[in-house]
Amino acid sequence: MPTCKECKFITPSPTGDPRKGVCLVERMQLAETQKTNVAIRGKLVKKDQEACEKFEKGESWKDISELL
Amino acid sequence: MQHDIGIVTHIQKFALNDGPGIRTVVFLKGCRMNCEWCHNPEGKKHFPEIFHFWPNCVDCGKCIRACPVEGAMESISREPLYPEEKGFRGKLGSKIIKIHKDKCLNCFQCAEVCEYGALVASGEIRSADEIVDEVARDKSFFAESGGGMTLSGGEPSAQPEFALALLRAAKERGINTALDTCGYQSYDKLSSLLDYTDYVLYDIKNMDEEAHIRQTGVSNKIILENLKKIITRDDVTTYVRLPVLPNVNDSEENVRKTGEFVQSLGLKDVYLLPFHPFAGQSYRLIGMDYPFPIGDSYPEEKANNIKEILESYGLNVSLWMAWIPNEEAENKTA
Amino acid sequence: MPITERTARLKERCRFKHVAGGEYVDPAVKAGVERARYVTEAHRKSIGQPKAIVRAKGLENILKKMTIHIQEDELIVGANTEHPSYFPMYPELSYFSTIDMADSQYCTEKEEMKAIAEYWRPYCIQSRCEQYFTEEELDIMYSATTVQPPMFVTAFSSIVPNYETVLEDGLNKRIEIIEANIEEANKSLRSSPWNASENLPLLHQIDQWKAMIIADKAVIAWAQRYSRLAKIIAENFESDSERKKELLEISDICRRVPAEPPTGFWDAMQSKWFTYLLCHSIERYSSGYGHKEDKVLWPFYQRSVIDKTHQPMTRDQAQEIVECERLKVSEHGSTKGRQLREFFAGSNDLFILTLGGVNSDGSDGCNDCTDVILDAAESIVTTEPSIAFRWNEKGRVETKQRVFNCIKKGFGFPSIKNDELNTEQLMKYFNVPEEIARDWALVLCMSPGVTGRRGTQKTRSEGGSDIYPAKCLEVALNDGFDSFFTGMQLGPRTGNGRDFTSIDQVWEALKTQLRFGIELSLRSKDIGRVMEAKFLCCPFISSIDDGCVEKGMDANDLAEIPNPWHNLIGGSVVVIDSIAAIQKLVFDDKKYTMTQLMDALDANWEGYEEMRLDFWNAPKFGNDDDYVDAVAKRFYDLVADEWKRNITYSGTYPLPLAQSVAGYIVNGPKTAASANGRKGGEALDDGGCSPYMGCDKKGPTAVLNSVAKIDASRHKGILLNQRLSPVLMNSDVGFDLWHAYMKAWHDKGLDHVQFNVISTEDMKSAQKEPEKYTDMIVRVAGYSARFIDLARYSQDTIIARTQHEESVAGA
């Protein structure tokens, strides 16, 4: 099974601790009252843990426009 | 004391094209004319009204339940999208609320329960002191820019006592004042306002009386006569403003007549306000019809043409918001 | 348009180092291994020697062996790495940063770098500091949720180098002064009778002085290498006779500076650039471009451009040199870990130079050199370095007109700081004499610090590092626990919001969480400072500070003029709007209970949309509304009071500094739903006191009136973003109106303001066709970035800032 480290939704070392990363896969469209469009729900993960069902192979920095 | 109370639609801060400098514009509700192009439809009637900002409506039904009159509101099928609706990210349901104006009591209970900003009361009764308190919060901006308070509308002189109270209260606090008027009012009443006014922004809509009646519902006689009298007062500075509307008042003949008239009065500065399409949006967003095409601004070339014609009468003509800074403001920023 | 064909060519081939989404945009950017290699090599050889000497030998080895290069067309030469596309690495600081970098796509010498990282593991500052913290404390700090990870793991620092001593004395004279001190000390050691308490401290001082001399000599030798290289190219490879002449002149300049004081403007710029490289990037890494550039360069500008007595040149030639400087900065590779690269979305590093204000005698500080620097910024169009303008009542209008011109073009800089307010603050809180205080420059984006020959800030352990207030409020309502992002206990147990029966309990819980955060952060900074002073001595940086030379102390160690501050990053206004909404809807109107609110927040407002709208429509900061503005005042006062309880390394308490960098973007996804009607994962407020996006409905004057209710004098700075309409700014009266607005801003005693002047339509077009908008610059936070380098989420937050238009009604 792949780990979070290999997933494109993980930013590699957002915290200074390279063993951890932030998963940015979960996002939602915001209500019409809000001025921005999207909320991204971050999740702190250990990079060597087993990836979830939303796993997509890739490196966040290559497709960063989808991230922050 | 009751004259210190009046009805306003809203207060606009940081207004830059209703007189020199940074200004706060107080929009008084109610007008005695009925111009077909009016940019402030919410300013026309003399009483508070309910407006349905329908792109925000999610058909939650709360307003219908709150309405005390049977049959004044109902849920109907949504109209096809207007172009301007695309800018809104509403959850557009298939249904929408309709208000039957003939039955509506204007009690505003629907607006009170609407969480989505779809039903909005326009027009609030407020005291002059309270309003000028709010205006005075921007005093330092007025002082630095040569700005102040502008009364607009609607037509401010349609609530003459209230307008007077506002102007007087502003002057008492050392705030520069401007009156944006169509001039359709008895000279005595206008003149009493001018005692507390620094700048008059005076609209000339059409030189032809018949056309004026057709387009605004009233004759221009009193308007032109009033202007002649106003300019005899040396305690106010008068700026003439010409709304320029396609096929309404933009014929060369009318422009030349206007130029001649302004020149004959010895006035120097004229401000052109070419038609812009924003008003059409507000009309449709509040469910009213608007007789001008959607989305087209007045052609720049034609506006420049008109500018040139007027300049041939020795006038300084300014387009849009390029407000010519007065010397006072210039000295302050130097 | 660049002022000459040369700078147009230089810009065309500039190897920009800005990042997008936390990664460098230019695929050629790589981690250079030479600095790390040579500092390690020297460390192995000298490890038994005094620490300052070990560090000096490290610097000496780097400067002696690192590959140097001069590029075509360059007038200013010198770089921090072996290749213009590279950035250096600093294994002596943070193990995590080094190993992360070694593991990244940027590092091609992976095996060597990993071995270097492992070599340094026991010696690096991170390992030396971590032992003073519990696992839980480290986890909290490293999660970057309520507080920024400490300097000893991010490796991030900041400094204001003493350019003045290099330019006034030259390094040869510095060496003479230091040698005299050693001689004096040796005499004292041999004086009769023996006095231990006087003499024993001299041993440490002698070590420091000797290290300084090694460093200064190494720097002079390094500049000589550039001199020789320029000559070699000129004599052997260059066929163009004009360029040949230039290269020989460059050779002559590098032969003389920084060993000797500069003669004219070109010399001065070169000497300043060498000094910059050493202090910010070679001896150790430090962010910033802190100097009062117009003041530092003015004497040389006068000689070259006005009097034409030394290195005579035209004004345009001076502008060309400043353009070259801006391109050198743009090409300069800074090394930051992932977290900080994301934090500076769209930029390379925080390069902010300072202009304007007053001279030390109180006269207007704007001069023609100020104007040339602004003209160059306007002509070359680069995001970096950013400029801060000190707005003083005395500042001349022609300079302010240039400030306006840059802003009008949409650069987002100069950002504007209140000159008098910031000078007074240095005097009042840090006891700086007025004539010294008047020479302040921004250390980083927002924080003033003194400049000059001594006492300038040398490390971020003095001032800097962050607390994230929105997250503090979130855990304050949840018994200190974070179930949204980390699943960790992030702070003290302050109870469950459901049990709160008054708004004061909310305030109390927030205060407790902020207190925990600031105390943990200050401890990490000060412990880091002690370790920096012991193990990360900076003999070159010390050698150019008169105080360090006089006292024989390392620059990290000496705190001659304290400058402590601690940031509140993105989220202050979310806290204010949230507390105001809770106060109004729960405790005043009693429309909802705390239990209902907590349920709605836990559900991320799902199924509570009408309730969310109620909270969203509650009074919002930025509308000149006394109800919520009173909450704002209380919040900023509370923070100032809390910070004030502490005494830091330099003997006094820190001031708060509310700003955002790109923290409002990065921390949005880490922060759960909030009571201002914001959903979990939505961006935070984008300044230090900027209204939440879309919540300022009454225009820019109301925003200033709201901000004016905060007592800015108790803060190191408070960042305010404003968006003004390009139509307004470009109209005939644009300058007059803006100038009037700025004077009102100044009269109200506000600290800061910066502007975005790009229309919503243009930004939306740039999202669709980025290739057509490569030069579009926007203000992100304390710095500017190219719009197209920002990710969608960040772009949207900038579009979402309320654009203040001229009124269209009332015609």
Automatic annotation (TrEMBL), chain A:
Q: Which InterPro entries match?
A: BSS-like_sf (IPR053760)
Gene giving rise to this polypeptide:
hbsB
* Gene3D superfamilies linked: 4.10.490.20
Name of the protein this chain belongs to: Hydroxybenzylsuccinate synthase activating enzyme
UniProtKB/TrEMBL annotation, chain B:
Q: Which InterPro entries match?
A: 4Fe4S_Fe-S-bd, 4Fe4S_Fe_S_CS, Aldolase_TIM, BssD/PflA/YjjW, Organic_radical-activating, Organic_radical_activase, Radical_activat_CS, rSAM
> Which positions fall inside the 4Fe-4S ferredoxin-type domain?
48-79, 95-124
By its UniProt entry, which Gene3D superfamilies does this protein fall under? 3.30.70.20, Aldolase class I
Which cofactor does the UniProt annotation name? [4Fe-4S] cluster
Q: Which SUPFAM superfamilies match?
A: alpha-helical ferredoxin, Radical SAM enzymes
- A GO molecular function held by the record: metal ion binding
The record, for Pfam families, names: Fer4_12, Fer4_7, Radical_SAM
Q: Which domain of life is it from?
A: Bacteria
User: Does the entry feature the keyword Iron, yes or no?
Assistant: yes
Q: Domain Radical SAM core: where?
A: 17-316
Assigned keywords, A-Z: 4Fe-4S, Iron, Iron-sulfur, Metal-binding, Oxidoreductase, S-adenosyl-L-methionine
Family designation = Belongs to the organic radical-activating enzymes family.
Quaternary state and partners of this protein?
Answer: Monomer.
What this protein is called in its record is: Hydroxybenzylsuccinate synthase activating enzyme
Give the organism the record lists: Desulfonema magnum
Q: Which gene encodes it?
A: hbsD1
Automatic annotation (TrEMBL), chain C:
GO CC annotation terms, alphabetical: cytosol
What InterPro entries does the entry give? Answer: Form_AcTrfase_GR_CS, Gly_radical, GRE, PFL_dom
What the entry lists under Pfam families is as follows: Gly_radical, PFL-like
Q: Which parts of the sequence belong to the Glycine radical domain? A: 687-807
Modification Glycine radical, positions: 782
> Which keywords, in A-to-Z order, does the entry hold?
Lyase, Organic radical
> Per its record, what are the GO molecular function terms?
lyase activity
Q: Which domain of life is it from?
A: Bacteria
List membrane-spanning regions.
none
Q: Which residues form the PFL domain?
A: 5-679
Record Gene3D superfamilies: 3.20.70.20
Protein name, entry field: Hydroxybenzylsuccinate synthase, alpha subunit
- What is the source species? Desulfonema magnum
